[in-house]
Design brief:
The chain has 130 residues and is mainly beta. It is built from two helices and nine strands.
Length: 130
């Protein structure tokens, strides 16, 4: 687990908090699980799913009626991320304002991170959803 005592790994805007709480209430879920997986034109994609419970190694962030669960292998890549929700005429959805991203694709669906010293190359990134 990657964390700094006393510091939340992610922040949640009021708009995201309200949407997560709505989704939790609608589906009777424990929280919104976020992670990363290999894919997209930039190399990695964010994953989101409603979860019925937390896994032991997941970081749990609670704010108001919203609860976000962070997959253990994605925690170091998501640290410092602001989760926002935008509602517009043409599209609505969650946005991740992640300071760890070094590159993103034009459509905004995938991102790239600098590889850690001694880790596998960017193109051989692991699935970070579990």
């Amino acid at each position: 687990m990657f964390s700094i005592p006393g510091k939340s790994p992610v922040t949640i805007t009021p708009a995201a908090e309200a949407q997560i709480a709505r989704l939790m209430a609608k589906g009777g879920a424990f929280g919104l699980r976020i992670g990363l997986k290999k894919g997209g034109c930039a190399g990695m994609e964010y994953t989101m799913e409603m979860a019925q419970d937390a896994n032991p190694a997941e970081e749990v962030v609670e704010q108001g009626d919203a609860r976000v669960l962070i997959a253990p292998t994605a925690q170091m890549f998501l640290f410092g991320t602001q989760i926002d929700y935008h509602s517009g005429v043409l599209e609505s959805g969650f946005r991740f304002n992640n300071p760890n991203v070094t590159e993103s694709c034009g459509c905004g669906e995938s991102v790239r991170f600098e590889p850690l010293a001694g880790s596998r190359a960017k193109t051989d990134a692991p699935d970070l959803t579990s």
